[in-house]
Every structure is written in C-alpha cells, then in structure tokens.
C-alpha cells in the first residue's frame, strides 16, 4: 500500500489543529480504522475506461461532421449534428430510454462480431422524409403507420450513411458496414442480453426547424477485439513506430524526383515612377550588385548557395561556390 508523504507545511498545520482542539487525535484514529467501502452496481458494470470513452467520442465527433455534410447535401437544407454525450449503460436501460416507436437501423460491421444500432428520433426521421419528398422539412410523427414506400425511402437514406461510418472508424479499424434490419419497435429487437454493457453515443441533430436525437448503440462484444486500439498508448505507439528498412529508400527516391524552381537574381535597382516612364532604348540601369560579389541561388525562394555567373555550352549558367549561410531566410 502506497504511503502518503506530507509536506512540512501540512505537518505544521496538522500539529497546530491538534494543539488548538480543532481536530481530535482519537477521531483521526477511528477514521483510519474504519473500512472505506465504495458502492458498486453489478448491473451497471463499467467495462470501458475514461480514456477509451474519449477515443470513442473523438471517432463519433468526426462521424457527426461527416453526417452534417452528407445530410446537408442530400436534404438541401440547414443540418447541424454534434456529439451530446457518450455513456456506457446496460442494454436494457438504453431500450427504456428511447421512444416506444422509433426508427431503428441495425448494421453489421464485419469483420467485428455483433451489430450496432442507429436510432433516429421520429421527429428527425420524418423531417428528413419530408425534405426528400419535396416538402419544407415538417415533422409529423406517424411512425406506427409507415407505408412501404416511406419505409423503403427511410431505410435507403440511412443505408447511404455507411460510407461516413466506415470513414469515421478507419483510423481505428477497417470495417465493412451493412444495413441488416430496419425496425420501428424496440421491443422486437434483441441484439444482446439486457445486462450487456453498451456504449451509447447521443448526437444532437437539427434539420431545418426540427430537432431531436440520433443515438448510436455499440455493444461491448463489438468493441472487445479493438479495445486496446482505443487507448492513448496505442495512438502514441502508432505515431512513433519505426519505419520498415525499405521505406526510407523508397521515400528518398520519390523525393529525388520532385521538381523545384531554381533562380539567381543578378541584381536589383530602384527608381521613381517618373524615371521609369522616361526610360528609352539604350538606357543603362545600374544594379545594386557589385560585379565582383557572388550572387545568391534560390531554391523555391529559399536562399541556398552563393554562385558566380558564367557560360556553359553556349548557355547562361552559374557555378556554385559555397553554401549560403546568412540572411533571414536561412533554414539552418
């Protein structure tokens, strides 16, 4: 058991409190002997660390941005989607928290086991449906009486979000999502056992004048194989992993093929507008460059070498004298 080390100031304050009677030594001993008990609810087992929950939140923040762009283009109206919360709760509690009749999309996410659930509040779903059918995005909740055409349109609309889900998860694992079922009654849906821990990502959704929630339910069985990849340590190891021996050679060859612009400024001069307008043929403009001083060779506007002008094979050329080591644009 680790011992807590007190600073000198804390020791002095403790002794002062004991001497003045603010604290009683017997009470301190009694508190030390008492067993500290923390309440634990076995029905609500926390199987994900805060670090892993934060990783899931980051993934679905990206997913929310992708959905915002996607639905804005599909519905051609104002759409704003953002992550409201990320919680781990029993599956039974999640089912009780959503409406008795709602829009449920069940996706398989091969190669991961199990399935995930995307639940859209009827207000949001019907606003989407109304926009697709040419309306203003008015929400009318009649989820209990969906026609076959409305069911088909809604299921196809959410099926098109698969690419966004795949892209959002690509930083962790390559998945191949597929819409397996479309349901409206949560009681007919039994993805996992009631006490199974699930992660619920709630998305605040605004479509035109309508607002509601989109909930994504991910069972523990789906995330179990990739739990190590949801930690900060994994991200750090991924970023700092060593390259393969052949990667440096391939990278060097590719860089060597890159084209850069090289130029040498022979000199510069300044004059007034009046002098410029009076220029005539055979006039001589004096440059600020001494004929005996070397010129500066620039590579993509960065000064790199000192050179002297000359001629090579009847073409104007420069000869490199040394590396450029002065000036404000020096890289070294």
Protein architecture, described:
It holds the Pfam family FliMN_C. One of its GO terms (molecular function) is cytoskeletal motor activity. With 332 residues, the protein is α+β, with helices and mostly antiparallel strands. The protein is 35% helix and 25% strand.
Key traits:
Surface presentation of antigens (SPOA); 11 helices; 25% strand; four-stranded antiparallel beta sheet; 332 residues; alpha+beta; Chemotaxis protein chec; single chain; 10 strands; six-stranded antiparallel beta sheet
Task: Summarize the helices and strands and which ones pair or pack.
Elements: H1 8-20, H2 25-33, H3 50-75, E1 79-90, H4 91-97, E2 103-110, E3 115-120, H5 122-132, H6 148-159, H7 162-169, E4 176-183, E5 197-207, E6 210-219, H8 220-223, H9 232-240, H10 245-256, E7 262-264, H11 273-277, E8 295-299, E9 302-312, E10 315-323
Antiparallel strand pairs: 1-5, 2-3, 2-4, 3-6, 5-6, 7-8, 8-9, 9-10
Helix pairs in contact: 3-7
Organism: Pontibacillus yanchengensis
Protein name: Flagellar motor switch protein FliM
Family: Belongs to the FliM family.
Number of DSSP E strands: 10
* Shape field: extended
Sketch the topology as an H/E string, one letter per element: HHHEHEEHHHEEEHHHEHEEE
Indicate the proportion of strand residues.
25-35%
Summarize the main sheet: 6 strands, antiparallel
CATH architecture descriptor name of the largest domain: 3-Layer(aba) Sandwich
Number of domain modules: 2
Query: How would you classify the helix and strand content by structural class?
Result: alpha+beta
Radius of gyration: 34 Å
Terminal Cα span: 52 Å
Placed side by side, the strands forming the largest sheet appear as: 1-5-6-3-2-4
Low-confidence stretches: none
Quaternary structure type = single chain
CATH topology of the largest domain: Chemotaxis protein chec
CATH superfamily annotation of the largest domain: CheC-like
The total count of helices amounts to: 11
CATH uppermost class of the largest domain: Alpha Beta
Protein name: Flagellar motor switch protein FliM
Keywords: Bacterial flagellum, Cell membrane, Cell projection, Chemotaxis, Cilium, Flagellar rotation, Flagellum, Membrane
Pfam family, one: FliMN_C
Organism: Pontibacillus yanchengensis
């Amino acid at each position: 058991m680790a011992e807590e080390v007190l600073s000198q100031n804390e020791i002095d304050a403790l002794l002062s409190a004991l001497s003045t009677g603010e604290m009683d030594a017997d009470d301190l001993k009694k508190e030390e002997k008492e067993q500290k008990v923390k309440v634990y609810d076995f029905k609500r087992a926390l199987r994900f660390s805060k670090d892993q929950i934060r990783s899931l939140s980051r993934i679905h923040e990206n997913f929310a941005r992708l959905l915002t762009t996607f639905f804005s283009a599909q519905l051609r109206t104002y759409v704003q989607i953002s992550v409201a919360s990320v919680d781990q709760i029993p599956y039974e509690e999640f089912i009780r928290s959503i409406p008795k009749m709602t829009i449920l999309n069940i996706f398989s996410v091969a190669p991961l086991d199990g399935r995930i659930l995307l639940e859209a509040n009827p207000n949001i779903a019907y606003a989407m449906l109304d926009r697709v059918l040419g309306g203003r995005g008015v929400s009318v909740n009649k989820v209990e009486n969906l026609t076959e055409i409305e069911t088909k349109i809604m299921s196809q609309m959410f099926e098109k979000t698969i690419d966004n889900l795949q892209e959002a998860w690509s930083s962790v694992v390559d998945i191949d999502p597929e819409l397996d079922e479309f349901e409206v009654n949560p009681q007919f849906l039994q993805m996992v056992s009631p006490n199974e821990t699930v992660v619920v990502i709630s998305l605040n959704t605004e479509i035109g004048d309508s607002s509601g929630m989109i909930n994504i339910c991910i069972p523990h069985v789906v995330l179990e194989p990739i739990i190590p990849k949801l930690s900060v340590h994994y991200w750090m190891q991924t970023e700092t992993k060593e390259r393969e021996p052949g990667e440096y050679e391939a990278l060097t060859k590719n860089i060597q093929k890159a084209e850069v612009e090289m130029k040498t400024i022979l000199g510069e001069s300044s004059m007034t507008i009046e002098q410029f307008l009076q220029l005539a043929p055979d006039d001589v403009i004096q440059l600020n460059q001494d004929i005996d001083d070397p010129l500066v060779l620039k590579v993509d506007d960065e000064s790199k070498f000192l050179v002297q002008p000359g001629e090579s094979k009847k073409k104007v050329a420069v000869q490199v004298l040394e590396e450029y080591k002065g000036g404000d644009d020096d890289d070294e």
